[in-house]
TrEMBL record:
Protein name per Swiss-Prot or TrEMBL: Lon protease homolog
Gene behind this protein: Lonp2
Species, as recorded: Falcunculus frontatus
Chain ranges of the Lon N-terminal domain: 13-222
Pfam families (alphabetical): AAA, Lon_C, Lon_lid, LON_substr_bdg
Catalytic machinery residues: 742, 785
């Protein structure tokens, strides 16, 4: 047998039957073992065997699927590879199986099958007679030539691979060190070949034949690699060409001539440069831009900074450095625009017109910034818009609510990833002119954070001495903001940073009375809503009494925003009806249109003309115009949200109505008191601030010291009001924080009612700070408070005497319906708050007789 061979295999070999792969001598293969025969072989031979011989097995390829043949041994391929089992790994998941690592040694052929079960064993003959080649029995010339050719192809193939990969370098070395006869088998198992081709190589027992068969496979692989490299190269070339454009262009742009510019017009960077040069930016900005574009040209496009620089330059080009709209200011026209757009707000309109008049006379106004302060929905933003309209300027609103980072105003430095300009510069880019009206909305809601104080950044923006050279961090060059007209809005001045407030002229915009709201609704809101919903006055009719119903029962606000929303809801509902009606009108069977007109003038809650729900029930086209009465209101908006609760709540002693001011407008505020047996403690609830708590203590102290005068006693008849008595004072709407001194008079009145057992008049509201001596001091927000009382239907209002001047601001028709009591001391307050007064002497006699 193969006496001269370096490898001697046993004459009897257990056979491993493989289905999918072909093992060739000299290569290693991992194969999964799960058929019963192969499993048996692994268990009884490989796992139990102790000698090296027992690890040598015969691998027979191309067996039919081993899982499908359990009993009969399939036809076996005649030639196999003797192999050394190097590793066995067992696993139970997903079913019991082994993974076997085998290394091919040499070919063999089956002479005779010795046994079939539990695994096949055969008598074999070793086929690789390697000594034949070296001994030179065969035609050496031919073989030498073939092997040389093969070797050349193999080297060519390896050299096409990346030699820096360690496996490739190792393979290159192996090519030289291995005997040439081993190469066909090894290379066949390395290069891309099919199982069928491998099988052919395995069957090629003659070395010469093996070389002949392998060379075409090698050539095929080389050709494939060549093709691959070619396509890769062309792609790289494309990339390189893109990169190469830049350096070339740089050279051509060493000095720019007009001709060259013409030539490269297609190139957008050149276009950008052209735009920069032709834009009217400041000299400083131009210098920076030219420097940046020079850098841009040197940069490969793939660099992240390329996009950053480009964006920067594009912004610089887009900014309106010198572009402005022409002011067309004519005060009379401005007055008309303001009057047409807004009902009421006389004081605000007057001040705005003054401001505009000064602008007209003196072109460059370095005056203060106007700041409209008032509750939401009173038209602050909308007046700002009208100002822009009268001036013929662009309008841009910058919402500052919640801004807590100064880079929101001033931008991020360009070194930051995702850096961008601040809102001012962004706004300028949006409007495209350098003299727009900027409305800085909600300046009172600026916040501070670790990222700096945005209010400080705003100072620079608003200061006419500084803002001609405002420097945004992103731009890094000064931009002139002196032509921009800034208007600010806020709900309260309390939270505007003092330095900012100092630069602004505050104009208070108070809330509206019910009458004003009705007018605003009918003159402005309803026409706007109709237009937005595609309705006409011929389709919907909202009588004034309905509007009043919405104002009193569905909204409780100083402005008209909720009213506007409710009107919107009504319009939507009507739009649906109208659209449905149009659909049904296609096949009308009823033509009694026009009745709605008759009942529109006398709508009461009891009278029930055709309402929106009725038309739905009848499934008939609605009659035009659809009339919105109280029933329709209820259908669309649901049950009323607010009821007139004032009189109901004042039906027992110990309740009084105060007036409070909030950033959302004035509010009426109930104060309730009760007393119980105890040790003289005062309990205060309703989220009160310290000032309000102190007011409560002041009120009690004043009443205790004046108890005898007013004949006020506790439950046991003692003039010491806190003797064996606890007092609880509560301010409803407990979730809302309340503070301020103006509830003083209300607390006194409420406690006086509690201890005297008398009811406070149900139509009286009051406000005023108190002192220990019983004086009433002035308070703020009188106008809003009076409007709130008016809204709530109260008739008499007690205010501090020194607030008399504030009454002038209140519209005459509001004043007409109200009685004002100007109180200088608490005696006057109590006298006005109770029916028949609260005189000390009169009470004394009365109470004496009672006792
Ligand atoms: P604010 O800025 O004060 O919160 P807006 O300016 O946004 O309020 O006003 C809300 C809505 O109310 C706008 O549609 C506005 O046109 C309308 N509005 C407010 N006051 C008036 C008014 N006096 N005349 C006409 N419409 C008004």
């Amino acid at each position: 047998m193969a006496a001269g061979s370096a490898i001697q295999i046993p004459t009897q070999l257990p056979l491993l039957l493989t289905h999918e792969s072909v093992l060739l001598p000299g290569s290693t293969m991992r194969t999964s073992v799960d058929s019963p025969r192969n499993m048996q072989l692994v268990r009884s031979r490989l796992l139990k065997g102790t000698s090296l011989r027992s690890t040598i097995i015969g691998v027979i390829p191309n067996t039919s699927d081993p899982t499908s043949d359990c009993d009969d041994l399939p036809n076996l391929h005649r030639i196999g590879t003797a192999a050394l089992a190097v590793q066995v790994v067992g696993s139970n998941w997903p079913k019991p199986h082994y993974t076997l690592l085998v290394t091919g040694l040499c070919r063999f052929q089956i002479l005779q099958l010795l046994k079939e079960k539990p695994y096949p064993v055969a008598e074999v003959q070793q086929l690789d007679r390697l000594e034949q080649f070296t001994n030179g029995h065969k035609s050496e010339e031919e073989l030498g030539e073939l092997s040389e050719q093969f070797y050349k192809y193999a080297v060519q193939l390896v050299e096409m691979l990346d030699i820096s990969v360690p496996a490739v370098a190792k393979f290159r070395r192996l090519l030289d060190n291995l005997p040439r006869e081993a190469l066909p088998d090894i290379l066949t198992s390395i290069i891309r070949t099919t199982n069928q081709e491998k099988l052919q190589i395995l069957d090629a027992v003659r070395l010469e034949e093996r070389f002949k068969l392998t060379i075409p496979l090698l050539v095929r692989q080389i050709e494939g690699l060549k093709l691959l490299q070619k396509t890769r190269k062309s792609k790289q070339d494309d990339d390189k060409r893109v990169v190469a454009i830049r350096p070339n262009r740089r050279i051509s742009h060493g000095s720019i001539t007009e001709d060259e510019e013409e030539e490269e017009d297609h190139d957008d960077v050149v276009m950008l440069e052209k735009k920069i040069r032709t834009s009217s930016m400041s000299e400083q900005a131009l210098k920076v831009c030219l420097k940046e574009i020079k850098r841009l040209k040197k940069m490969p496009q793939s660099m992240p900074e390329y996009a950053l620089t480009r964006n920067y330059l594009e912004l610089m080009v887009e900014l309106p450095w010198n572009k402005s709209t022409k002011d067309r200011l004519e005060i009379r026209a401005a007055r008309i625009v303001l009057d047409n757009d807004h009902y009421a707000m006389e004081k605000l309109k007057k001040r705005v017109l003054e401001y505009l008049a000064v602008r007209q006379l003196k072109n460059n106004l370095k005056g203060p910034i106007l700041c409209f302060v008032g509750p939401p929905g009173v038209g602050k933003t909308s007046v700002g818009r009208s100002i822009a309209k009268t001036l013929g300027r662009e309008f841009h609103r910058i919402a500052l609510g919640g801004v807590c980072d100064q880079s929101d105003i001033r931008g991020h430095r360009r070194t930051y990833v995702g850096s961008m300009p601040g809102r001012i510069i962004n706004g300028l880019k949006t409007v495209g002119v350098n003299n727009p009206v900027f409305l800085l909305d909600e300046v009172d809601k600026l916040a501070k954070s670790l990222q700096g104080d945005p209010a400080a950044a705003l100072l620079e923006v608003l200061d006419p001495e500084q803002n001609h050279s405002f420097t945004d961090h992103y731009l890094n060059v000064a931009f002139d903001l002196s032509q921009v007209l800034f208007i600010a809005t806020a709900n309260t001045t309390a939270t505007i940073p003092p330095a900012l407030l100092d630069r602004m002229e505050v104009i208070q915009v108070p809330g509206y009375t019910q009458e004003e709201k009705i007018e605003i609704a009918h003159r402005h809101l309803i026409p706007k809503q109709l237009e937005q919903h595609g309705l006409t006055p011929q389709q919907i009719q909202i009588p004034q009494v309905t509007t009043l119903g919405i104002i009193t029962r569905y909204t409780r606000e100083a402005g008209v925003r909720a009213l506007d929303r409710k009107l919107g809801a009504i319009c939507r509902a009507v739009a649906l009806k109208v659209a449905e009606g149009q659909h049904k009108e296609a096949k009308p069977d009823r033509a009694d249109v026009g009745e709605g007109e008759d009942c529109k003038d006398h709508i009461t809650e009891d009278a029930k003309p055709e309402s929106i729900s009725d038309t739905a029930d009848l499934a008939l086209p609605p009659e035009m115009p659809i009339l919105i009465d109280f029933h329709a209101l209820k259908d669309i908006l649901g049950p009323p949200m607010y009821d007139m609760e004032v009189s109901e709540r004042l039906n027992q002693p110990g309740v009084a109505i105060g007036l409070a001011w909030t950033p959302l407008g004035g509010e009426i505020m109930f104060v309730e008191a009760s007393r119980m047996d105890g040790e003289g403690q005062l309990t205060l609830t309703g989220q009160l601030g310290n000032v309000m708590k102190e007011s409560a203590h002041l009120a009690i102290s004043w009443l205790r010291s004046n108890a005898k005068r007013y004949q006020l006693t506790n439950a046991s008849g003692s003039f010491d009001l806190l003797d064996n008595t606890d007092i609880h004072l509560h301010f409803p709407a407990g979730a809302v924080t309340k503070d301020g001194p103006s509830a003083g008079v209300t607390i006194v009145t409420c406690l006086a009612s509690l201890f005297s057992g008398r009811l406070v008049c149900s139509d009286v509201a009051m406000t005023g700070e108190i002192t220990l001596r019983g004086l009433v001091l002035p308070v703020g927000g009188i106008k809003d408070k009076v409007l709130a009382a008016h809204r709530a239907g109260l008739k008499r209002i007690i205010i501090p005497q020194r607030n008399e001047k504030d009454l002038e601001e209140i519209a005459a028709h509001v004043r007409q319906g109200l009685t004002f009591v100007l109180a200088g001391c608490l005696d006057e307050v109590l006298n006005a708050a109770f029916d028949g007064g609260f005189a000390a002497k009169a009470r004394l006699e009365h109470l004496n007789s009672k006792l």
